[in-house]
Amino acid sequence: MSTASKPDVADVHVYDTTLRDGAQQEGMNLSVADKLAIAPLLDELGVTFIEGGWPGAIPKDTEFFARAEKDLTLANAELAAFGSTRKAGGRAHTDTQVRALLDSAAPTITLVAKSDIRHVERALRTDGDENLAMIADTVAYLTDAGRRVIVDAEHFFDGYRFDPDYALRAVTTAFEAGADVVALCDTNGGMLPDWVFDIVSSVRERTDGRLGIHAHNDSGCAVANSMAAVIAGAHHVQGTVNGYGERTGNADLLAVVANLELKLEIPVLGGAGLAEVTRIAHAVSEITNIAPFARQPYIGASAFAHKAGLHASAIRVDPDLYQHIDPRKVGNDMRMLVSDMAGRASIELKGRELGFDLSGQSDLLGRVTERVKDAEANGYTFDAADASFELLLREEIAGTRPAYFRTESWRAIVEHTQQTGEVNAEATVKLHTGDVRVVSTGEGNGPVNALDAALRQSLVTAYPAIEDFELIDYKVRLLDSSHGTDAVTRVLLEMTDGQDSWSTVGVGPNILEASWEALVDSLVYGLVRHEVVPL
Amino acid sequence: MSTASKPDVADVHVYDTTLRDGAQQEGMNLSVADKLAIAPLLDELGVTFIEGGWPGAIPKDTEFFARAEKDLTLANAELAAFGSTRKAGGRAHTDTQVRALLDSAAPTITLVAKSDIRHVERALRTDGDENLAMIADTVAYLTDAGRRVIVDAEHFFDGYRFDPDYALRAVTTAFEAGADVVALCDTNGGMLPDWVFDIVSSVRERTDGRLGIHAHNDSGCAVANSMAAVIAGAHHVQGTVNGYGERTGNADLLAVVANLELKLEIPVLGGAGLAEVTRIAHAVSEITNIAPFARQPYIGASAFAHKAGLHASAIRVDPDLYQHIDPRKVGNDMRMLVSDMAGRASIELKGRELGFDLSGQSDLLGRVTERVKDAEANGYTFDAADASFELLLREEIAGTRPAYFRTESWRAIVEHTQQTGEVNAEATVKLHTGDVRVVSTGEGNGPVNALDAALRQSLVTAYPAIEDFELIDYKVRLLDSSHGTDAVTRVLLEMTDGQDSWSTVGVGPNILEASWEALVDSLVYGLVRHEVVPL
Predict the structure, then answer these.
(1) Helices B386-398 and B344-354 sit at what angle, rounded to 10 degrees?
(2) Which terminus of chain B has a smaller tally of CB atoms within 10 A, N or C?
(3) Separation CA A437–CA A118 (nearest Å)
(4) pLDDT in the model for residue A394
């Protein structure tokens, strides 16, 4: 296993199982509509196969394949239905589960098959020969029906370490019956890269069939295990977008693909490719509704974000010395973070990113750095709130904030009565734009929504630009959760004018106070951005 | 690189840099008190070194070392101060930054040194020989002063791939000057395990000194890269708790240590060890206030959580067939998740976990499974809300919920006036306990806090047990953030009675409505748990 052993591959399959194995993740619950929205994104990325689910076993997966047949057009990928070998003691052509796979009309069928003799005997409660017959019968029946068959050899690595001969017989039986690929599964996820390399190499010596790898991340090595398998001769990698999956997740297919293409120079994607991978990964997390992991390799929001004061000044000179790849290759960006650890060099760099030349303005830099430190000590964060930082910076440059309005008071009321069963939220805002006093009341689903409505309503006459502003994201974080609802609350808002979007932060002991601060910052920043002059 | 090459090591250093390199993570901001709270946890775990920060360069790190000298007693670990080699063209004993390292009184000093000639020339703006002199002078000066010196060879792997001779000279210069360890750093995090193995093996052939590995996770391989280095002959691994760190983070030291001890059978921890690692990892995330990553290997909340209906029935029989290790070895637990993907076998297993024998009760199982499906379709999740699930289960068993009280109405008001600058939150709850109508008003920092206060106050006379209940965690999630504050809100609450804790879930278009539902469930569950009889 060395750098010299780069595989000679014309083609490595990229097999995505986000919609099936990824959906096993704790807290994830994909609807048919979700799956129909994710599949085109995977196809756009250019994966080879999209595994859609288990028709017959899970009703919404049956529905997914029925709707996909009518509504889903794939340019790059082939749809795969997941299922199991026939029942022990039965026959493939009379097995209702196998029949449902054929009924799905998916061109590829992926069969999970046991290859660990202990699982055959203890979980399946049959014997080794019958399990091999189940594999042979089911693969032959489905290939005879014109389908491409992939076999997932479940618990293969654990099985191989316990009884290599039986595990190998499961693989060769599948190939002999016509399987196109046998994916070797580290189902329990406990393998290390050396072990995977050694075992895949051994299997490689015993068969010419196309081997695949299906890794889980329980030892923190799923990406490396997938790479090790390819280096040992596997030509098919399975994984999920963002590493979704049960327990610690499946191999993060995006990192595997990026490593294959950018590090080992093996092209594997057929569609838009890596340049779109960050956008696609985030679009998928919008649909799965799993908050993106900022530290995710390649595509995470932090993946190319630099905070270290030590490096900030050098990064100005030579960004390529501080990044393992050019972030544009994966559609991501380098970012400089504002933080009390950073110091003046970072603040200066951040200023430049926002269009302010602060070089040589030592006093100003010092004041801004001080204010950032104070604010962070009180729970603010500017890492994810560029607009709030820019307002702070502008205030220090101009000596004052743009005074679009003065708040007199605000109030929010939320009421519920058992009689009607309804909950009503209402907010009243009193403020002054120039010499005009405005009192507005807004309603909404919740108190923040009602405050937002009342605030916009009271400002839109004076500043019509506000009409186009819309709140698109709202995040709440309790900063000291050891005190339950007594904790300090931090709110991050994202607002858009239809063209661009910007983020602000608010902090307070009260969720509404924090929200109010972030709302006001968002509107003020939007007006500044649109070069609106205060009345 | 194979399983046969297990290193013959009596001792592998475990070097924790959570407090220094980990703190570079986006959004993390550790106070001196935070660092003083984390260090004893690391010591309890049994790491060999704790790197505390950069005294002299960062004021709060100077304070940390000053306070550590007085207040911090370590049973297992040695404290290390991080700093840099002397300035180019200067002398070690007159360098104020080097002086600050000595002043810290830390027994170990870790010096970052350049080993990539491009960084020497372009970032440091000096030549190769002067950089080597900086390493030699500073190491010699500090070892002469009686300190143990570790050298972090920054950008080593990138440097070695560009100019192996220069990178090696940096390493040998450090050893010749008296360095105890030279840690080879993948500073930009782009390495793959094969590359690390090959390069460490080459360095190993050229020196007898103790080599270390410092990996970042930019290619998703930090844990595997650390393992590869140890297998190639490194005897010192650096990393951070929970993989904290800049960009994609440092190597997750906990996964590395667990892999070394449980997979390669190399004992490395000196303290409480792996059996406490889950607790310690979560305690650290309480202090850093970075939400734990559920899928984190070994210690994540999901790391041993099973959802798959396919496996649920088999797991009942043979849990060891479905886990890469016994979760108790790392102080974690196996959990069964309730989900519409799971089906009856999982619900039955979950029931058993909660103390209900549902075997053979097919109708009941069917009803509970249906309700779980419906609730999840509406945004509920029971994965993290066992108490809400148990109430649902009890309701289906008993045919009714325990009627501790009937709500008539609730109302929350939050007000702010510019005049006083204050924000006040107040809630009024009207309800009936038995025949008694109770009206209570609570105040709080925020509306949820006020509602909680009013609800408790109106119930405590009838149910004194409530006196001991306390809300300890409160999480808010917007389920469809594409509509800003219009989104549906999910609230997860955790409550304790001082002995045990339990979690409930509430969902609604209104944050207060969702919070009210979860609050009511929490109190009702607590009363059920304490076997309080409804009035």
Answers:
(1) 100
(2) C
(3) 78
(4) 92
Is the CB of B487 less than 8 angstroms away from the CB of A474?
yes
| pLDDT greater than 70 at residue B229 | yes
User: Number of helices (H) and strands (E), helices first, in chain B?
Assistant: 17, 16
B13 vs chain A: nearest CA distance in angstroms? Answer: 20
φ/ψ of B252, rounded to 5, equals -75, 105
Q: Name every chain B residue with its beta carbon within 8 A of the beta carbon of A307.
A: 24-26, 246
- State how far the Cα of B80 lies from the Cα of B49, in Å rounded to an integer: 7
- List residues bridging with A212 in a β-sheet: A183
Q: Do B447 and A190 touch (CB under 8 A)?
A: no
Q: What is the pLDDT of residue B373?
A: 77
pLDDT bracket for residue B95 (50, 70, 90): very high
Distances B93 to A477, B97, B138 between C-alpha atoms, Å: 47, 10, 8
Token pair for B146 = 């009686």
Q: Which amino acid is it at B469?
A: F
Average pLDDT of chain B to the nearest whole number = 89
Question: How far is it, in rounded angstroms, from Cα B517 to Cα B385?
Answer: 13
Element (H, E) at B442: strand B436-444
Claim: this prediction has a pTM higher than 0.80:
no
Tell me the C-alpha to C-alpha distance, in Å, between residue A110 and each of A79, A130, A430.
Answer: 10, 20, 63
- The pLDDT tens digits for B101-141 are 999 999 999 999 999 999 999 989 999 999 999 999 999 99
CATH 3.30.70.20 fits A13-288, yes or no: no
pLDDT at A31: 83
Residue in B with minimal Cα distance to A187: B322
Buried b (16+ CB within 10 A) or exposed e, A86-99: bbeebebeebebbe
Q: What is the DSSP track for B23-58?
A: GGSTT----HHHHHHHHHHHHHHT-SEEEEE-TTTS
DSSP, residue by residue, A105-165:
T-SEEEEEEE--HHHHHHTS-S-HHHHHHHHHHHHHHHHHTT-EEEEEEETHHHHHHH-HH
Looking at beta carbons, which residues of chain B come within 8 Å of A219?
Answer: 223, 255, 258-259, 263, 297, 324
Q: Quick one: CATH architecture of B406-529?
A: 2-Layer Sandwich (3.30)
- Residue B360's pLDDT is 83
> Per this entry, what is the length of chain A?
535
For residue A225, give every residue at least 6 positions away whose Cβ sits within 8 Å of its Cβ, in sequence order, or none: A186, A191, A192, A193, A196, A213, A215, A251, B224
**What pLDDT does residue B338 have?**
64
- The domain segmentation of chain B, as residue ranges, is 13-288, 305-377, 406-529
Q: Are A234 and A184 in contact (CB under 8 A)?
A: yes
Rg, Å, chain B Cα set: 28
For residue B483, what pLDDT is reported?
A: 40
Decide the pairing of beta strands B436-444 and B423-433: antiparallel
Cβ separation B219–A485 shorter than 8 A: no
For chain A, list residues with pLDDT below 70. 1-10, 308-313, 316, 338-343, 377, 383, 477-487
Instruction: Tell me how far apart the alpha carbons of residues A222 and A340 are, in angstroms, rounded to a whole number.
Output: 35
Q: Among residues A271, A259, A275, which one has the least CA distance to residue A215?
A: A259
Cβ of A416 within 8 Å of Cβ of B410? The answer is: yes
> Are B445 and A474 inside 8 Å of each other by CB?
no
> In Å, how far from its chain's centre is CA A527?
32
pLDDT of residue B4: 34
